[in-house]
UniProtKB/TrEMBL annotation:
PANTHER family: PARTNER OF PAIRED, ISOFORM B-RELATED (PTHR13318). The lineage of its organism: Eukaryota, Fungi, Fungi incertae sedis, Mucoromycota, Mucoromycotina. GO terms for biological process: SCF-dependent proteasomal ubiquitin-dependent protein catabolic process. This is RNI-like protein. Coiled coil: none annotated.
């Protein structure tokens, strides 16, 4: 292996290595020292990184490496500090199974970093070639998706340093008590995400209001996803005046007291949609509610008044009725300029064949995805297919997953009429 790397030391630019549990192999320092033009490296081991890191103190600055992904049993700040000093042109860094000590090293030794993944469990975007040579600064930061919270004191130095450049923030921060919150406000008094476009956060006690304060003046935020919001009223008050949001999601929220506040927020979007002809770019086009207790039938009725909606995603809503969702869909179909093109309905007993009959009246519907619906049968699928046959509905994509009353026969019939049909029993 040493010979192979040496022979390609000038030509090798991309490398993907999986050493599993083997320890008598080259270390990261050896690889980076040898392959002087290596620009992208992915390194995987089932052992702690310290077993493979090697001796970076003896190598010179590496000017080619810009994209590094490491998956190890454990990664610490001490493991990566010297490596980051030598690989000073890194623009993308993804690390799995690391602890919060890495943030200090990242804060100090990654002046050109644009994309950071800290134990992410979703795909992190690749670098954009067209940004080469542009002014640096962290643009995207991803933590894990809800498994383990990150202490605010650990991650905030990195976020604060990048507050003017950060465009995407997907982070689950630990809750903060009154004393901790006071310390955050004292340490970061002028914290403001002035370039933020996409934000996903967990609305835990204390940290929710701190993060909302950072976007209070934003005019760039278009996509907001809030999860596990403990104080819906405070959340709504924090975002109510923001006019740039076009994609809004709320997930795993149980605060029933916040129901009136959600009604107020949705009514704002409904009223705003009436003015969409003059400001289409700032109108709500995407709405998702997942496993949210405060979503009741009356809120669905307000949702149906948002005339700019193009995508609607409802999952695991236990406090809505069949009549409530059917009336909502019927109201959508009555809009002269209704724009709803994509609907996803998951894991709700209230969704029945009558709901699919109603969906068949949405003449602009092109994409329908239903999943874990035990009360939808062949009759509902046939109703959708019939509207396609009649030329009323131009449905292009139908996806049916784990709907036990839907048979292969009705799916086969749908495949004859709809361009793309996916079925998972």
């Amino acid at each position: 292996m040493v010979v192979a790397f040496w022979q390609t030391r000038y030509t090798l630019t991309m490398l993907n290595l999986d050493f599993s549990d083997r320890i008598n192999v080259l270390g990261l320092a050896d690889i980076i020292f040898t392959c002087i033009n290596l620009a992208k490296l992915s390194f995987t081991t089932t052992l702690p990184l310290v077993s493979f890191i090697g001796n970076f103190s003896t190598i010179k600055q590496h000017d080619a490496l810009i994209d590094l992904k490491i998956n190890a049993k454990r990664i610490t700040g001490q493991d990566i500090e010297l490596m980051l000093k030598r690989c000073h042109k890194l623009r993308r860094l993804i690390m799995h199974t690391c602890d919060t000590s890495v943030f200090d090293a990242i804060h100090k030794y990654t002046p050109r970093l644009e994309i950071l993944g800290y134990n992410p469990d979703r795909t992190v975007p690749e670098l954009e070639d067209n940004r080469k040579g542009k002014e640096g600064g962290l643009r995207m930061l991803y933590t894990n998706n809800g498994k383990t919270s990150v202490r605010a004191a650990s991650i905030l130095p990195v976020i604060y340093k990048s507050q003017a450049t950060l465009e995407t923030l997907n982070a689950i921060l630990s809750s903060a008590n009154i004393l901790q919150l006071h310390e955050l406000y004292t340490t970061y008094p002028d914290f403001e995400l002035s370039s933020i476009k996409h934000m996903t956060f967990w609305g835990k006690s204390g940290i929710q209001q701190f993060l909302l304060r950072s976007i209070r003046n934003t005019t760039t935020l278009t996509k907001l996803h809030a999860i596990n919001v403990h104080d819906v009223e405070g959340f709504v008050n924090g975002i109510f005046h923001l006019s740039s949001i076009s994609r809004f999601s709320l997930s795993y929220t149980k605060d029933m007291v916040g129901h009136p506040s959600l009604a107020r927020l949705l009514q704002k979007y409904a009223t705003k949609s009436e003015e969409s002809s003059s400001t289409p770019a700032s109108s709500l086009t995407f709405l998702r509610f997942r496993y949210c207790t405060p979503i009741l039938d009356d809120l669905l009725l307000i949702v149906a008044s948002i005339k700019t909606l193009q995508e609607l995603d409802l999952r695991g809503l236990t406090n809505i009725s069949t009549d409530g969702i059917n009336i909502m869909i019927n109201k959508f179909s009555e809009h002269r300029h209704q724009q709803l093109k994509k609907v996803e309905l998951y894991d709700m007993d209230c969704i029945r064949d009558s709901t699919l009959v109603a969906l068949g009246q949405l003449k602009n519907l092109t994409y329908l995805h239903i999943k874990d619906l035990k009360n939808v049968s062949d009759e509902g699928i046939s109703a959708i297919v019939e509207t396609v046959e009649e030329g009323y509905l131009d449905l292009d994509h139908l996806c049916v997953e784990r709907c036990p009353k839907v048979t292969q026969a009705s799916i086969n019939h749908a495949k004859q009429k709809i361009n793309v049909v996916k079925y998972n029993k």
